[in-house]
Automatic annotation (TrEMBL):
Family: Belongs to the CdaR family.
Organism: Streptomyces tirandamycinicus
Keywords, ordered alphabetically: Coiled coil
Protein name per its UniProtKB record: Diguanylate phosphodiesterase
SMART domains per record: GAF
Regions annotated as coiled coil: 220-247
Protein origin, superkingdom: Bacteria
SUPFAM superfamilies for this protein: GAF domain-like (SSF55781)
InterPro entries in UniProt: CdaR-like_regulators, CdaR_GGDEF, GAF, GAF-like_dom_sf, PucR_C-HTH_dom, PucR_C-HTH_sf
Domain GAF: 80-231
Length: 631
């Protein structure tokens, strides 16, 4: 081997560029070497270049295999899909020696493909591109599932150009582009690209290499999807297990409350004991509310089915029996209530209704005794007062205190129920009234198709107010309109038993008057009915009627020395004509107008309405006849 031939080994050893292999031939030719020597050197150069190409190819394949191995390693420890895809795109760009590499994924919902990862890109518009199926080189690859390569994108007519895609490619400055499909089985899920900003030819080996990276990318995406599905499935299982655990706990709590409620019933527990037990189980506050309690205002119970209903932030379940509302259980502080807890609350309401019915049954005997005592007061006024007091004491009633007699009637029509429905309504009314009487230490009895009550008056009570309260309470309990009329107070029923019958007659007249006036479902006493009350009341409180009707005017005259009462009388006598009134009074018409304006301020704006005018005229006549003076 000559010295010149040995120099090729040195070039191979130090990895010299291809152009350096021409130097030994040039030096030999310059030194006057013969044709044989030059031919030998040329042959050695070709052999050296072939060896160099083989070594270069092996180095390139080694780098490719190393990159593919690293990619496979990344996939084996996949934690972040985006990180793996970025690594694939970076390695593809590096090995293919391109300026840009990027990856797009198909969007089945939108029917297009979009950029997922870019490497070497500088254009925001390009990074946000979306390609319709068949649009641009990438859209064509996604549609046909075949690799496509172009050495001059804008001169290539094999794919459909669009303004949006061409603008993005132009912003990025790309010229040569290679795209290979990402395949899962026979389905294309995206495209992997390598691109340059100058014209170049991609070799078959480079296409195959990019396809290998695309296969790894597809595997990474599939693995990530499987991991996501597995995580979702595990999460669903965890949620299902949590639900099962919660339901098991709820069932255990429900079983516990069932045992506690049974024990309460067996040991004579009360309504509030039931509410306390359920409060502990449901982790809230359960209270028993009477039918007319303010907390039940606006609550619409779904019939008598006993289902809990939502009311604001509370849960309410009716406590009822036979269509009668006995009250309700109200759960506070527990806005979220699952079906099992709702059933627990509803079962507690059922137990409460049974306790109330048991208590009511035990009290019916006492109620009958109360009714018999009231019947004797009404029907046998000559009974010995001492015996009446003894019987009342056993019932914890004080018949020497002031009482009011109230007559109550259910005003709901039979609605096809006939006499059976009317009898049931009377029974329910008596039951509710008896309970109220026992609570108030009074008496109650059925009478004349309705119920009569004898209730004591507390401090600040009045007959009209007792009538309104009783109508509201009984109507709320029965969930039907109940009309209640009240008598004037009876000072001591035991001392004057005959006064109870007279007061009951007055209360019945008030009930009938309310019904005739279209005020069914209300409660009232004679003073509430104006001059009509004078006709209904045996006492005939004329002075009180005059005072309530024209007292403000008469009082003003007394304090100021004015003449408003006479002006009012002349005004009505003149047919409510100011002109004729001023002639009757011999004053100026402006004076009449001023006095009428003052009267309006004292009596109210509706004082000239027909109903008010009639009452005022009657009061003026009674005032003139009796000489009553308002105080």
């Amino acid at each position: 081997m000559s010295h010149e031939q040995a120099s090729y080994l040195e070039l191979l050893a130090r990895g010299a560029p291809a152009e350096a292999y021409d130097r030994p031939v040039l030096l030999a030719r310059a030194g006057g070497a013969g044709p044989e020597t030059l031919s030998g050197l040329e042959h050695a150069k070709q052999l050296a270049l072939r060896v160099r190409a083989e070594l270069e190819g092996r180095r390139r394949r080694e780098a490719e295999l190393s990159a593919l191995f690293e990619t496979a390693h990344d996939l084996s420890g996949l934690r972040d899909l985006d990180a793996v895809l970025r690594a694939i795109v970076q390695r593809a760009r590096s090995l293919l020696g391109t300026e840009v590499a990027y990856l797009s994924l198909n969007d089945p919902a939108a029917g297009d493909t979009y950029m997922r990862v870019t490497e070497g890109s500088v254009s925001a518009r390009f990074q946000q591109l979306r390609l319709g199926m068949g649009e641009g080189l990438g859209g064509l690859v996604a549609q046909t599932a075949r690799p496509y390569v172009t050495d001059s994108y804008f001169d290539d007519e094999r794919f459909r150009h669009t303004r949006a895609i061409d603008s993005g490619v132009r912003d990025e400055g790309l010229v040569a582009i290679l795209g290979v499909p990402l395949m899962l089985g026979s389905q294309v899920i995206g495209v992997l690209f390598a691109a340059d900003r100058r014209a170049r030819v991609f070799e078959r080996e480079q296409v195959a290499l990019l396809a290998s990276f695309a296969a790894h990318a597809a595997v990474a995406i599939d693995t990530a999807n499987l991991l996501a599905e597995t995580r979702n499935a595990l999460a669903e299982l965890e949620r299902a297990n949590a639900i099962i655990r919660d339901h098991s706990a709820v069932i255990e709590r429900a079983s516990g409350v069932h045992d506690r409620l049974t024990e309460l019933v067996l040991h004579g527990g009360g309504v509030h004991d039931v509410a306390g037990a359920v409060s502990e189980v449901l982790d809230g506050t359960v209270e028993f509310a009477e039918p007319d309690a303010p907390s039940l205002a606006g609550v619409e119970f779904s019939g008598a089915d006993g289902h809990a209903v939502r009311h604001a932030d509370d849960w309410v379940v009716a406590v009822s029996a036979g269509g009668e509302l006995l009250g309700a259980l109200v759960l506070r502080g527990h806005p979220g209530l699952d079906p099992v807890d709702r059933r627990t609350l509803e079962r507690a309401a059922m137990v409460t209704s049974l306790l109330l019915l048991a208590r009511r049954s035990a009290g019916e005997a006492e109620q009958r005794v109360r009714g018999e005592l009231l019947d004797d007061l009404l029907d046998a006024p000559g009974r010995d007062p001492r015996l009446l007091r003894e019987r009342a004491t056993r019932l914890r009633a004080d018949l020497d205190a002031p009482h009011v007699v109230l007559a109550a009637r259910v005003d709901a029509p039979p609605a096809g129920g006939g006499s059976d429905r009317a009898a049931a309504d009377r029974q329910r009314l008596w039951s509710a009234a008896s309970h109220l009487a026992a609570t108030r230490h009074g008496l109650a009895a059925t009478r004349d198709g309705g119920t009569v009550l004898l209730l004591p008056m507390g401090p600040g009570d009045s007959a009209p107010e007792l009538a309104r309260q009783t109508a509201k309470h009984l109507g709320g309990t029965l969930r039907e309109p109940v009309t209640v009329g009240a008598s004037a107070p009876v000072e001591a029923p035991a001392g004057t038993p005959g006064s109870v019958a007279a007061a009951y007659a007055e209360a019945r007249r008030c009930v009938e008057a309310l019904r005739l006036l279209g005020r069914s479902g209300e409660g009232a006493a004679a003073p509430d009915l104006g001059f009509l009350g004078l006709l209904l009341a045996d006492t005939g409180d004329i002075e009180g009627f005059v005072h309530r009707t024209i007292g403000p005017v008469a009082g003003y005259d007394e304090r100021r020395g004015t003449d408003l009462v006479r002006t009012l009388d002349a005004y009505f006598a003149s047919g409510m004509s100011p002109a004729r009134t001023k002639d009757a009074l011999h004053v100026h018409v402006n004076t009449v107008a001023q006095r009428l304006e003052r009267i309006g301020r004292l009596l109210g704006e509706d004082w000239q309405s027909p109903a008010r005018a009639l009452e005022i005229q009657l009061a003026l006549r009674l005032h003139a006849i009796s000489g009553a003076v308002a105080r």
